Amino acid sequence: MPPQDLTSFTRAAASTHVGGRSVNEDRVFVDETLGLFIVADGVGGQIAGEIASQIACDVVAEQVRAGGSLNSAIHAANAAVREGVPSGDAREGMASTIIVAREHPGALELAWVGDSRAYIWDGTSLSMLSRDQSLVESMVASGEIRWDQAANHPQRNVILQALGQPATRSLEVAFRRLTRLPRSTVILLCSDGLSDAVPAPELATHFQRAAVNDVRQTASTLIDAALAAKSDDNISVVVFRPELSNANPSPLSKQDFTWSYNIESKSYTHGALPASSA
């Protein structure tokens, strides 16, 4: 099996692996100076998902560097992916999910499309900061299935939103702005090759065992955990320590997360993260 592609920065690490696929359609991006972190998961198999995810990362980074908001940057990426190939081309229909984190002096912004995720680790709890735009998530919200049935549902990989979707469909960009974070936190962005393969209790254990502030070790360990679990998808992670000079260091509220797993009590707390769009 090929080695993981691991890149280290000052306070961040990004890693990606082909996993159980023949082609890696995931892409990762880190710019610590800009405070921008991205994971994109290309959709399409043989119709160039890797091109879609690369376009998504490139356009969002370009737009943010030019002063654009995450919302406008992701909408620009959606148009770029959709228009990236001429009608009738074999690559027509390529698409990508995306999860983006952007640091500001007093806040951490998150924006996403699809089911790539954001988590936060505070030393004792792992909390999911995003909410999947997926069929099973909508089924949970409507009460059709229970929360604990979602992970193994046969349609768990069906997403409701993606970059590159037809212009006739309105793109919904989910958005969160966090102005308070616990001290000594670590943020994880990942594709579903990790989140589908490694359950929250195991993810939390890997964070707990990693050396303090060693994001490189954490990123590498998470990829290895997904490979050990025989993930059948590409696996990508970005792990970073946020720098929010003016943020209020305090615990998250239930409105900040979908769920939180405490490694000491070995219990979940269900949050009240609203389904909002930018």
Features:
278 residues, single chain, 8-stranded antiparallel sheet, 6 helices, globular, alpha+beta, Phosphatase 2c, domain 1
Overview of the molecule:
The chain has 278 residues and is α+β, with helices and mostly antiparallel strands. The chain has a single domain (5-270), classed as PPM-type phosphatase domain (Phosphatase 2c, domain 1). The chain is 24% helix and 28% strand. It is built from six helices and 15 strands. The protein has helices at 49-65, 70-82, 135-142, 192-195, 200-209, 215-228; strands spanning 5-8, 12-17, 26-31, 36-43, 95-104, 107-113, 117-121, 125-128, 174-178, 180-181, 186-190, 235-240, 248-249, 259-262, 267-270. The strands form three sheets. It has an eight-stranded antiparallel beta sheet. A hairpin with a 3-residue loop joins β1 (5-8) and β2. It is globular, with a radius of gyration of 17 Å. The termini are far apart.
Measured on Cα atoms, how large is the radius of gyration? 17 Å
What's the N-to-C terminus distance?
A: 40 Å
Q: What structural class do the secondary elements suggest?
A: alpha+beta
Given this structure, which CATH class is correct? Alpha Beta
How are the secondary structure elements laid out?
Layout: E1 5-8, E2 12-17, E3 26-31, E4 36-43, H1 49-65, H2 70-82, E5 95-104, E6 107-113, E7 117-121, E8 125-128, H3 135-142, E9 174-178, E10 180-181, E11 186-190, H4 192-195, H5 200-209, H6 215-228, E12 235-240, E13 248-249, E14 259-262, E15 267-270
Parallel strand pairs: 10-13
Antiparallel strand pairs: 1-2, 2-12, 3-4, 4-5, 5-6, 6-9, 7-8, 7-11, 8-14, 11-12, 14-15
Helix pairs in contact: 1-2
